């Protein structure tokens, strides 16, 4: 139950996404975590157009559950709807960066 005066929260276990020692101790593959992060934020930006706007390491946990690596996004207080124009231009920016296209 949540309203203007009550905020319900849930405890989530895991290590910070930048804690290499935690990942090593729990058998979590850092490359797999990087792949998940890329997919999650690409999906938010380029597909959904609805983005978590505070993705610092304290707001992204990594955990191992039943042998599978999971990411947990925390602090859902700041999201932004992205316009189609922004998303298209942002896509063009990344394409130009990856291609080394200094004209765009």
Secondary structure layout:
Blueprint: E1 15-16, H1 20-25, H2 30-48, E2 50-52, E3 60-65, E4 68-73, E5 79-81, H3 84-99
Antiparallel strand pairs: 1-3, 2-5, 3-4
Major beta-sheet overview: 3 strands, antiparallel
Structural class: alpha+beta
**DSSP strand tally:** 5
Number of helices: 3
Description:
The chain is an alpha+beta fold and 104 residues long. The chain has three helices and five strands. The strands form two sheets. A three-stranded antiparallel β-sheet has the order 1-3-4, with helices on one face. A two-stranded antiparallel sheet has the order 2-5. The protein is flat.
Question: What are the salient characteristics of this protein?
Answer:
single chain, alpha+beta, 39% helix, 19% strand, flat
Q: Brief overview, please?
A:
With 104 residues, the protein is of the alpha+beta class.
